[in-house]
């Protein structure tokens, strides 16, 4: 065990896995930084700090600093994976996925199926996502719902340093393409990380806390907001189950349904915009598989169906917080 | 370098098999027994074979929606391909690919592709894998004059130059991107090789309707790339004997155009004339190859028609390795 941030856990896991497996490599924009400048390679050391130190240790063949070419980054990762390597591509902002979408959606996600199961595509695409840094409409989105809708991709969102390591290692040891979402507001979150080959299986949600009165299903940054709300409610004797999904594809349906069957009240807290979202997906799941357990309408706490605004006041109004979660829990309890 | 008799026979056989495969498909599709969209490679055989005869199984290619020729030239099983196009359970991709997505990674064929221009970035990735391994292997991105206008192709060419990837961008210019002419759609109104050259790589040009010109030029390209000089490009001037897709009425063709290109730019005919005039092979040798190709395709078609369809239960298999 060692205490570290999510950023450090990701960096360490990549270091260790590249050391262990010569087929693992990283590629992306400014993952080294400084190439072709007076400052020289590693003048930046990776724009998010998640790839710092890799270039010096593993060299340009396995730490590939690319031009700003998202289609080529993700497409090259697809080709590397088909050719037997285990690439980790970085999209500096998840919003840039739009530039590369064909290579994810029509290519990487579909190879195995189209080719009749005769190939694997073990590529990991790290995407830095989420609001909270006033980065405005094109650098703040939570596009995990869109990725979750694509068969063939796995979608992962760590919220603790231990999960960052365990889920990333699981992605790197697996044989399917994985969209690995790292929330930019969570990089500095600190916690204990197990040593060695610590893996967290996909499709197993983390029960953050058990309360028994209301089920809160959430992921990513919204986990911590939900915890704050649950703390406040607990002081009044209202107990919340808080479920951190960890992965939205595969989805731990059992954890959701088990809790809802016990509480009868569900609040879904989702940072993606509300239409065709993770929240609506889980609401659909519960409505179809646990309808008779429900004692109140399903509450969905999401941003409004708008782009992410810039100004501090506007972004704060846009991004769901603990008070919205708390209000939703109170609404579901007040029903009838 | 003079090709041996066996090499000549093999090259001609590969071209003849592709031609027979495509001509047969052209007829089979009219019966209505083949589902979906099919894009035929007939006319361009010398390009695929002139490139792929230089490659081994651990060299990579990525292909296009017009991919049957590349698949055969790279060593995909012809009967498995016919079954795949017929959507059969034991097709090369179990009936999940069809004509547009045939692949066999075990022979370095990383996939035909339904998205124009999608393959080039993947070829760069495969080339980077080859570079990591350091064994002098290469990746080929087959693209047409349509794909030469896609941003993915531009990104891939620049990325290959920047990373010194052993990637070869083979542009088969058949003068049509779907139903639109090269002169309209390629804004430089020059050629594709100049465009590739502008990205900073060495380029070659060859007559893609002439096996020998393509094959000999490709040897130079491959020597250059395998030596670690980074990427390169070759533009092959060729002809599409069929429409964009089967069923295309081809109203964009000029009067007599199809007759003229079949008369003047048939790569099989040109091969035959060249080798018989030089006394390297006789007409009887080539006739025997033609007959064998036709017999193979006859057998492949008969077997594909008789083969079992996929079990509908398999609609959900092969999405993930584990889920």
Describe this protein's structure.
The complex is a heterodimer of chains A (336) and B (323). Chain A is built from twelve helices and 14 strands. In chain A, helix 1 packs parallel to helix 7 (161-173), helix 8 packs across helix 12 (322-334) and helix 9 (253-263) crosses helix 10. In chain A, strands 3-2-4-5-7-6-12 form a seven-stranded mixed β-sheet, sandwiched between helices. Chain A has a five-stranded mixed β-sheet with strand order 9-11-10-13-14, sandwiched between helices. Chain A is globular and about 65 Å long. Chain A folds into two domains: 2-193, Thiamin diphosphate (ThDP)-binding fold, Pyr/PP domains (Rossmann fold); 206-333, Rossmann fold. Chain A is α/β, with parallel strands linked by helices and 336 residues long. Chain B has 323 residues and is α/β, with parallel strands linked by helices. Chain B has a single domain, classed as Rossmann fold. Helices cover 46% and strands 10% of the residues of chain B. Chain B is built from twelve helices and seven strands. At the A-B interface, helix 3, helix 4 and helix 5 of A face helix 5 and helix 6 of B.
């Amino acid at each position: 065990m060692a205490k570290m941030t999510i950023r450090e856990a990701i960096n360490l896991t990549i270091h260790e896995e590249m050391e262990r497996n010569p087929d693992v490599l990283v590629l992306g924009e400014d993952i080294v930084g400084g190439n072709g400048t007076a400052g020289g390679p590693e003048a930046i050391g990776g724009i998010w700090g998640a790839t710092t130190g890799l270039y010096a240790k593993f060299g340009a063949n396995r730490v590939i600093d690319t031009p700003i070419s998202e289609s080529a980054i993700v497409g090259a990762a697809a080709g590397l994976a088909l050719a037997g390597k285990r690439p980790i591509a970085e999209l500096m902002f998840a919003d840039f996925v739009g530039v590369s979408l064909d290579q994810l959606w029509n290519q990487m996600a579909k190879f195995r199926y189209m080719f009749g199961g005769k190939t694997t595509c073990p590529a990991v695409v790290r995407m830095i996502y989420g609001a909270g840094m006033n980065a405005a409409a094109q650098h703040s989105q939570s596009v995990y719902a869109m990725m979750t809708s694509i068969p063939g991709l796995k979608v992962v969102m760590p919220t603790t340093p231990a999960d960052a390591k365990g889920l990333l290692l699981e992605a790197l040891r697996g044989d399917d393409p994985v969209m690995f979402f790292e929330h930019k507001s969570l990089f500095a979150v600190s916690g204990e990380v197990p040593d060695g080959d610590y893996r967290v299986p996909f499709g197993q949600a983390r029960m953050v806390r058990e309360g028994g009165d209301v089920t809160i299903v959430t992921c990513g940054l919204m986990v911590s907001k939900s915890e704050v709300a649950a703390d406040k409610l607990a002081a009044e004797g209202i107990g919340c189950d808080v479920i951190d999904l960890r992965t939205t594809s595969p989805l731990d349906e059992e954890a959701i349904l088990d809790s809802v069957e016990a509480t009868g009240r569900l609040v879904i807290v989702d940072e993606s915009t509300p239409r065709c979202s993770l929240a609506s997906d889980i609401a659909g799941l519960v409505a179809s598989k646990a309808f008779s357990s429900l004692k109140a309408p399903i509450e969905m706490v999401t941003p409004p169906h708008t782009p992410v605004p810039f100004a501090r006041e506007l972004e704060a109004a846009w991004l769901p917080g603990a008070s919205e979660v708390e209000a939703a829990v109170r609404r579901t309890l007040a029903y009838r | 370098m003079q090709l041996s008799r066996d090499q000549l026979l093999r090259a001609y056989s590969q071209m003849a098999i592709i031609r027979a495969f495509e001509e047969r498909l052209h007829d089979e599709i009219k019966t209505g027994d083949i589902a979906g969209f099919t894009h035929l490679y007939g006319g361009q055989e010398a390009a695929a074979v002139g490139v792929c005869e230089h490659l081994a199984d651990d060299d990579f290619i990525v292909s296009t929606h017009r991919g049957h020729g590349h698949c055969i030239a790279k060593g995909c099983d012809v009967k498995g391909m016919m079954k795949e196009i017929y959507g059969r359970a034991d097709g090369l991709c179990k009936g999940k690919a069809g004509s547009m997505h045939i692949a066999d990674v075990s022979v370095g064929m990383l996939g035909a592709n339904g998205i124009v221009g999608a393959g080039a970035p993947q070829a760069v990735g495969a080339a980077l894998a080859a570079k990591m391994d350091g064994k002098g292997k290469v990746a080929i991105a087959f693209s047409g004059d349509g794909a030469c206008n896609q941003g993915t192709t531009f990104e891939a060419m620049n990325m290959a130059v920047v990373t010194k990837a052993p990637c070869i961008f083979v542009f088969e210019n058949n003068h049509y991107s779907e139903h639109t002419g090269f002169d309209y759609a390629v804004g430089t109104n020059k050629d594709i090789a100049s465009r590739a050259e502008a990205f900073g790589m060495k380029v070659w040009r060859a007559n893609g309707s002439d096996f020998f010109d393509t094959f000999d030029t490709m040897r130079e390209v491959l020597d250059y790339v395998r030596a670690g000089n980074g990427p390169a490009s070759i533009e092959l001037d060729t002809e599409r004997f069929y429409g964009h897709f089967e069923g295309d009425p081809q109203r964009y063709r000029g009067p007599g155009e199809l007759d003229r290109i079949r008369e003047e730019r048939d790569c099989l005919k040109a091969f035959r004339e060249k080798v018989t005039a030089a006394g390297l092979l006789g007409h009887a040798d080539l006739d025997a190859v033609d007959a064998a190709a036709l017999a193979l395709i006859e057998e492949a078609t008969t077997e594909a028609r008789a083969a079992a369809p996929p079990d509908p239960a398999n609609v959900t298999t092969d999405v993930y390795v584990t889920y």
